[in-house]
UniProtKB/TrEMBL annotation:
It holds the Pfam family Acyltransf_C. This is 1-acylglycerol-3-phosphate O-acyltransferase 5. CDD domains: LPLAT_LCLAT1-like. It comes from Gorilla gorilla gorilla (Western lowland gorilla). It is found in: Endoplasmic reticulum membrane. Its main location: endoplasmic reticulum.
Length: 364
């Protein structure tokens, strides 16, 4: 019985982070809403600057739990500039934690507030967050034939015209890779073979539309493209490719290491015409696939379970994350200590979600 209790407690380590991250959402949205109203008659750059700062505060709290709390070891390979840049971030997609990896890199460049995502359409219905991500500069897109190119172009052009700092995160595969979902992998491989493209094993065939539109709109505004390849090293995977950890698994400390390879590509080396870019993007994913094959399958133990080149063990100082966690948690706790505060808190959850859904419906 004691062993069962210990095991149950061990498996519940995600509970504290979940309560804090979700529990502080109304506080954050209220702070953002107040600033949105106050800045209504100010130049857009003033709103954007403080919104980026608020976003940085919240995401720093997220990283407190996903880095400092879990104690995960971050191993960086390749080229990560120290200074912030306007970039498109292209990465393999395998886990809900992939969104956090973009934050992990951005905070090391002091660009955390500039992170904006290209998101699948269904996420716009998330309570509170769905509406806010769009307000922060996120772009919701539909897949395949339903992809609205004009809408994405208009949004990106407005950000460029406003001088909005861009750390635009795109996952070109469009869905998460899972080695246990063999039908998805087989369909992806068949799609590549039909078009005369290399068949990939550890990544899915990338889709070009969102990447092409983003680059075409921002090519004169960008500094570079970051080609990012990520591996989550599990405790008991034996070096074999298995399903990547969920956020819950990650917060339960089931992933002791993240290997992140960054290849910084100058924008002048990216083809502009769509078909040429399709080939280029597929070639980038071929490179990812070869690195992942070597990571998991190399007969040389010195080359297995690591990426090529020198790795840097990058540790995030708790000084960058703990203050944000204490501020947001303290404000939330203070709100919940009074009747009026509790009523405001609950109403924010309810009416904030309803108004957010109404807003995204009108914008659809």
């Amino acid at each position: 019985m004691l062993l069962s209790l210990v095991l149950h407690t061990y498996s519940m380590r995600y509970l504290l982070p979940s309560v804090v991250l979700l529990g502080t959402a109304p506080t954050y949205v209220l702070a953002w809403g107040v600033w949105r109203l106050l800045s209504a008659f100010l130049p857009a750059r003033f709103y954007q600057a403080l919104d980026d700062r608020l976003y940085c505060v919240y995401q720093s709290m997220v990283l407190f739990f996903f880095e400092n709390y879990t104690g995960v070891q971050i191993l960086l390979y390749g080229d990560l500039p120290k200074n912030k840049e306007n970039i498109i971030y292209l990465a393999n997609h395998q886990s809900t934690v992939d969104w956090i990896v973009a934050d992990i890199l951005a905070i090391r460049q002091n660009a955390l507030g500039h992170v904006r995502y290209v998101l699948k359409e269904g996420l716009k219905w998330l309570p509170l967050y769905g509406c806010y991500f769009a307000q922060h500069g996120g772009i919701y897109v539909k897949r395949s034939a339903k992809f609205n190119e004009k809408e994405m172009r208009n949004k990106l052009q407005s950000y460029v015209d406003a001088g909005t700092p861009m750390y635009l995160v795109i996952f070109p595969e469009g869905t998460r890779y899972n080695p246990e979902q063999t039908k998805v992998l087989s369909a992806s491989q068949a799609f590549a073979a039909q078009r005369g493209l290399a068949v990939l094993k550890h990544v899915l065939t990338p889709r070009i539309k969102a990447t092409h539109v983003a680059f075409d709109c921002m090519k004169n505004y960008l500094d570079a493209i970051y080609d990012v390849t990520v591996v989550y090293e599990g405790k008991d995977d034996g070096g074999q490719r298995r399903e990547s950890p969920t956020m819950t698994d990650f917060l339960c400390k089931e992933c002791p290491k993240i290997h992140i390879h960054i290849d910084r590509i100058d924008k002048k080396d990216v083809p502009e015409e769509q078909e040429h870019m399709r080939r280029w993007l597929h070639e980038r994913f071929e490179i990812k696939d070869k690195m992942l094959i070597e990571f998991y399958e190399s007969p040389d133990p010195e080359r297995r379970k690591r990426f090529p080149g020198k790795s840097i063990n990058s540790k995030l100082s708790i000084k960058k994350t703990l203050p944000s966690m204490l501020i947001l948690s303290g404000l939330t706790a203070g709100m919940l200590m009074t009747d009026a505060g509790r009523k405001l808190y609950v109403n924010t959850w309810i009416y904030g979600t309803l108004l957010g859904c109404l807003w995204v419906t009108i914008k659809a």
